[in-house]
Amino acid sequence: MKCHLCETKSCATGEPCTDFDSLELYRGNEEDLRLLKTASDVEALYYCTLNRLEEIMEFARRMGYARLGIAFCIGFKEEAALLGKILSEEFEVFSACCKVSSMKKADVDAALRPWLGEVSCNPVEQARRLNEAGSQFNIVLGLCVGHDSLFYRHSEAPVTTFVVKDRVLGHNPVAVLYSQYLRKNLKRRPEERLK
């Protein structure tokens, strides 16, 4: 499928171009069906009235989650502390920083740059720590591209994203789609930073 090329968007009005009997994907999996229903309820009941944090909290309430996990980038440690403080008013909160266990970049043959340090991010360990804590719902706060993918893959609990890291665009990556200037000057093949 190439839905991004569709001009009619008829599926949004209940007239799909192709019917896949998608309900079959949810039959027999009560947790997935409950996640879908709860997400749809939060969207319908609070559309354009709650910010992302409020939506996360309402979703967690409606799902009955009491134990939340935060997987955060060390560059967001202050934001993680604030997020944890807010969530702790209502939920039991656990967190795992991206540098947990101080694994060396050299041990995984990763590129080394002096301005970044020699400690690698460790998203699988972040997931393991939150799994062991028994978190019921995990929140990603600024993990790197790819590191977030590993965290999602290894988290036993459902995961949502609170912040997507984009240091160039002030953590607002969709700005590149809204700005003609940024799109026109998109680095198709960026040069590696040496200094």
Supply the helix-strand structural class: alpha/beta
The tally of helices reads 7
Radius of gyration: 20 Å
Total domain units: 2
CATH class of the largest domain: Alpha Beta
Low-confidence stretches: none
- CATH topology of the largest domain, by name, is Rossmann fold
Percent of residues in helical segments? 25-40%
How far apart lie the N and C ends?
Answer: 42 Å
> Could you state the order of secondary-structure elements as H and E?
HHEHEHEHEHH
Question: What is the general shape?
Answer: globular
Question: What's the overall average pLDDT, rounded?
Answer: 93
Largest sheet: 4 strands, parallel
- The CATH architecture of the largest domain can be given as 3-Layer(aba) Sandwich
Strand order of the largest sheet: 2-1-3-4
